[in-house]
Design brief:
The protein has 191 residues and is mainly alpha-helical. Helices cover 47% and strands 0% of the residues. The radius of gyration is 20 Å and the shape is globular. Mean pLDDT is 86; it is low at 1-20.
């Protein structure tokens, strides 16, 4: 009896007509990005960075780097998504995420992570000065995301954009130091 009811339900759902009036263009372009990055720029998964309160120049630069083939991600999803954006939609996406509230800090940073971050002088570009330099805020970011990006820089899987210092040689050799820096940054409020 239950099998018969399930079959009937599948048959009825499968037989429903497609909505001819569905218009993907009616939705704001940032909703495509929200599937991974969260509607308000706070992603639920450390694979995807928090974009809320991020610097607009940086968001724009990254979208264009994916479009131009200068940046890649492991699964290639970003290239697929950004190619769906029309040129005039990019500023809409940038404005939406950059004007959202920054994510809340998470986890417990350590004094060792703070000291390693300071010793590498990363704060010269990535602290509150980020808003004037077009570089990303690293604070209140997922620790797992930061860890992966730092390792990708260190291991040559991610390049540095024109105008920036080469990040690869600046990264710690030790995975433990990278993890400590990432945990520290995740625990600091975004300016």
């Amino acid at each position: 009896m239950a099998l018969r009811a399930a079959f009937l339900l599948v048959a009825l759902c499968g037989a429903a007509p497609a909505r001819a009036d569905f218009d993907a263009e009616a939705f704001p372009p940032y909703e495509r990005c929200a599937l991974c990055h969260g509607l308000f720029g706070v992603s639920a998964n450390a694979c995807f960075p928090n974009l809320g309160g991020q610097e607009p120049v940086y968001i724009d630069t990254q979208i264009r780097a994916f479009l131009d083939g200068d940046r890649h991600n492991d699964g290639g999803q970003m290239v697929d998504i950004v190619t769906e954006l029309k040129p005039e939609e990019i500023p809409v996406v940038v404005e939406w995420f950059s004007t959202q509230a920054p994510p809340a800090p998470s986890g417990d940073g350590s004094a060792a992570g703070q000291a390693a971050f300071a010793a590498l002088n990363c704060g010269t570009c990535h602290d509150a000065a980020a808003r004037y330099m077009g570089v990303p805020h690293l604070t209140s970011q997922h620790a797992g995301y930061l860890e992966k990006q730092m390792k990708d820089f260190r291991d040559g899987r991610r390049g540095t954009h024109v105008g920036c210092l080469p990040h690869g040689p600046m990264m710690p050799e030790s995975d433990a130091d990278i993890a400590a820096i990432a945990a520290y940054l995740a625990s600091v409020p975004r300016p």
